[in-house]
């Protein structure tokens, strides 16, 4: 059984750990404290329980997934001897670089280091390590247990062997991949951020209500989820960081909607805070 380490146990980290655990991998989940990891463990176990009850998992896979999961706040022991490490921390370049520098020292030379970033440069991240050929972006989508896609983004130095390895791993966890040459925002984030930002501007300008904007996109353009619903799910603080990065790298058309900035300042971060464009309390 191959060892995979997931660094970061937020919404994405928990989903990534779940996907690997039910696929037979030994999964070490790492975060900065045991308290955070205990909450993550409860959330992942609840997801496993729900999947079993709905018939998505067999009893054997369910029990195996629980046995496969280890929660460890010590990065050294969590990441040592891992075949693959997936980083899923905040979308802040300095935090990611700090994590990758540590992983570069801890992990064997053959370990693949992947970032779950939705916008940021694997080239820049990889350049801070001694193994840029083994650094790649592996962009999962939220919620990970439902979404089939992984964007595989190669940096300037990422080797064909690394990219092929990630494609093979993705297939083993029942995901479909698209390969992207690095550019800020890749494919999906560039498109999605523009759509979501325009929806926020429409709401700010009083063109339509949040409900009607989302319904129009779902029924008129066949989107499975409205852009404002999706932003609430992702987290408005996360979306703002993405927009700020794209604005800095790609220019004026990615300037964050003033409404998004206002909501984040007010603490209206979406589902995780109980209120965003919708009220979840």
From TrEMBL:
InterPro entries: 3-OHacyl-CoA_DH, 3-OHacyl-CoA_DH_NAD-bd, 3HC_DH_C, 6-PGluconate_DH-like_C_sf, 6PGD_dom2, NAD(P)-bd_dom_sf. Keywords: Oxidoreductase. It holds the Pfam family 3HCDH_N. Pathway: Lipid metabolism; butanoate metabolism. Gene3D superfamilies: N-(1-d-carboxylethyl)-l-norvaline Dehydrogenase, domain 2, NAD(P)-binding Rossmann-like Domain. The keyword Oxidoreductase applies. Residues 3-182 form the 3-hydroxyacyl-CoA dehydrogenase NAD binding domain. Coiled coil: none annotated. Residues 185-280 form the 3-hydroxyacyl-CoA dehydrogenase C-terminal domain. Belongs to the 3-hydroxyacyl-CoA dehydrogenase family. NCBIfam families: PRK09260.1. This is 3-hydroxyacyl-CoA dehydrogenase. It comes from Oceanobacillus luteolus.
């Amino acid at each position: 059984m191959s060892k995979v380490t997931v660094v970061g146990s937020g919404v994405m980290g928990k989903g990534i750990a779940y996907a690997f655990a039910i696929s037979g991998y030994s999964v070490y989940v790492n975060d900065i404290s045991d308290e955070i990891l205990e909450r993550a463990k409860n959330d992942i176990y609840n997801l496993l329980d729900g999947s079993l009850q709905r018939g998505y998992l067999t009893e054997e896979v369910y029990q195996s997934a629980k046995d496969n999961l280890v929660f460890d706040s010590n990065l050294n022991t969590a990441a040592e001897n891992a075949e693959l490490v997936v980083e899923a921390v905040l979308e802040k370049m300095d935090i990611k670089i700090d994590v990758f520098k540590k992983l570069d020292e801890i992990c064997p030379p053959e370990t693949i280091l992947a970032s779950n970033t939705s916008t940021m440069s694997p080239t820049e991240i990889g350049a801070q390590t001694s193994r840029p050929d083994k650094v790649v972006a592996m962009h999962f989508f939220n919620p990970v247990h439902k979404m089939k896609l992984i964007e595989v983004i190669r940096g300037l130095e990422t080797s064909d062997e690394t990219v092929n390895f990630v494609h093979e791993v993705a297939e083993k966890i029942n995901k479909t991949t698209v390969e992207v040459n690095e550019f800020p925002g890749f494919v999906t984030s560039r498109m999605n951020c523009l759509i979501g930002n325009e929806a926020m501007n429409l709401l700010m300008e009083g063109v339509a209500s949040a409900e009607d904007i989302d319904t129009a996109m779902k029924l008129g353009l066949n989107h499975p989820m409205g852009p404002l619903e999706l932003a609430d799910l992702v987290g408005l603080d996360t979306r703002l960081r993405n927009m700020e990065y794209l604005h800095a790298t790609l220019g004026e058309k990615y300037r964050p909607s003033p409404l998004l900035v206002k909501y984040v300042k007010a603490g209206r971060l979406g589902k995780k805070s109980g209120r965003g464009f919708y009220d979840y309390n």
